[in-house]
Amino acid sequence: MIDSDSRLRALEAIARAARAGLEATPRAELGIGFEHFPLGTCGPVSELMGRIVLELTGSRGVYVCGLSHPCLEANQSHAWLEVEGLIVDLTHDQFPSTGVTGYVLDASAWHSQFECEKQALCLDPSSWGLYPHRAYAAMKAACDRTRRASSIN
Question: What's the whole-model pTM score?
Answer without folding.
Answer: 0.90
